Amino acid sequence: MRLVASLAVTVLLLLIFGALFAGADENFAALASAVLPRLDGESFFRWTFVLVVFGAATLGAGFTLLRPPQPAETTREVKTLRRLEWALPIGVLVVLFAAFIAVQSTPMFGGEQHVQHTEQLTYAGYARSGFWQLTFVTILTLPIIGAAARWAPKSTQFDRNLLRGLGGALAVLTLLIVFSALIRMWAYQDAYGYTVMRLLVMSCELWLGVVYLLVIAAGARLRAGWLPAAVVGTAMAALLGLAALNPDAFIAERNIARFEATGKLDQEYLEGLSADALPALQGLPEEARGPIVAEITEDLFDEGWRSWNLSDHLARQP
């Protein structure tokens, strides 16, 4: 029954992640459609029979190879999954992730060149195509790796190496997906300008990449007692880093640099920034800077003491 449950979990994970990958990339969706059989009345029973027979044979062979018969006196010290019970779903995910990265290698890492050489593809389409699906994949994979690390047996060297190999491979492949998402958003911002939301999204993706690096480091030694504290610490460091960066000022600087390079300026968005952006706006020509500064400073003198902050205070000074 436990092997049947493992097979059911494998199928469920395959459906969830397969659907996310298919929604993220049309080429992968076409490949999945070509590989999966079309089921009518006759083929349904045929493929069901094939699945049952070959599935049972595969499970039996895998059980024999990964968990040979043990002496009767052998007892289990802690409750863990059998090798096949955890290795089957993780191994299938590794194959699925590798297939997706292989199919989408050019769109994932092509960046600006891929956009320019692909007909009817814009930077917006490139960045948004599958971005959120890939983000969900990144988030969902973390608890799966954690569950494997918690429930996989580690009593023998083979068990430990198997966990390092499959868990590490899944973490590295997911890290490539994080890297792809960062490249997409970077290309999008270079083309359309920086916003607070885009900066926050990039920061979250970058933090997820750091988390996966920590997971890989913990998996190398199979010691993760320090990992939760490290994850929380990196999250706090990311928040402090964003505060030190001063997002509104940084966004204003990047948009002004884009204006100097292309002559394009999103005046309406800049007018919605806080007083933190005022020093950076000095780099704009007077005719462009004047309306933006006037809009930002319009309500500064009407705010009460409860909304006081240093940036607004400095902006009020003559």
Automatic annotation (TrEMBL):
Residue ranges of the TM segments: 44-66, 86-110, 130-153, 165-187, 199-219, 226-245
Upper taxonomic lineage: Bacteria, Bacillati, Actinomycetota, Actinomycetes, Pseudonocardiales
Name this protein carries in UniProt: DUF4173 domain-containing protein
Record flagged with keyword Membrane: yes
Coiled coil: none
Keyword Transmembrane applies: yes
Originating organism: Saccharopolyspora elongata
InterPro entries given in the database record: DUF4153
UniProt keyword annotations, A-Z: Membrane, Transmembrane, Transmembrane helix
